[in-house]
Write a structure and sequence with these properties.
This is SH3b domain-containing protein. The protein is α+β, with helices and mostly antiparallel strands and about 260 residues long. It folds into three domains: about 110 residues, Alpha Horseshoe (Serine Threonine Protein Phosphatase 5, Tetratricopeptide repeat); about 70 residues, no CATH class; about 60 residues, SH3 Domains (SH3 type barrels). It is built from nine helices and seven strands, in the order H-H-H-H-H-H-H-H-H-E-E-E-E-E-E-E. The strands form two sheets. A five-stranded antiparallel β-sheet has the order 6-5-4-1-7. A two-stranded antiparallel ribbon has the order 2-3. The radius of gyration is 23 Å and the shape is globular.
Length: about 260
Amino acid sequence: MKSKFPISIFKFLALLTLGSQTALAIDYRLTTLETAQGMFRSATNSAMYAEAARQFDFLVHEEGIRNGHLFYTVGNCWFMANDVGRAILNYRRAEQYMPNHADLKHNLMSALELRTDLIPEKEPHPLAANLLGWHINTPTTLRWWLFAFCWLLFWGAWFWMERSTKKEARVTALATGLLSAILLASLLTETFVERRAKPGVVVAKEVLARKGDGNMYAPAFLEPLHSGTEFKVVEDRQKWWHIQLADGQTCWIPANAAETVALK
């Protein structure tokens, strides 16, 4: 596990988050940050790391501080406390703020390897895989750069076409315009799907998944789900969540056995 964030960075990030809070509130939050960071640095066993994690969690849930470095450190605390579920949960939260952070990626992969339930990803339909493989396999950042490049080429070709009767100008404008439209549709679709999805993580040590929203329903699987299992929320009925696992199977779990990556 890697961790490289000194307390000075937390102070700076906290001040950015605090806005117009009173001096007393700012001082209290910074004191809490320093206390939590000190507990993390001096921890020698899982119980001490868990207590440090709770101190950081207080800043997240009670004080409303949100930034990637804070979530990353909370994840590190839970990782060292041997709580795989909460480690993955907070790494996923940090990922929303700093998706390309190398140490975060390393620690997340380390936590994922410790999961009890290794559920394979659902394979896409062969036809969809052939037609949309580029959409699935091309990183979002690269598609944004390709879209920007094609969009600029399109307008360059458009101005060329306005001043020339050459066939090449029309072909170039048509090709770059079509590519721009395809890439933009890919990016907008991905954004729409991500906003609708509600990813979550099981944080209970284990939970018996059921076929309905109550303990009277039969178990959905032969074995319980364990801490660190990831899912998407299909339906929220307050005390019970209807979830979909990575392989496409669905079940119901008690809401208090898991948390969503997005904070309310």
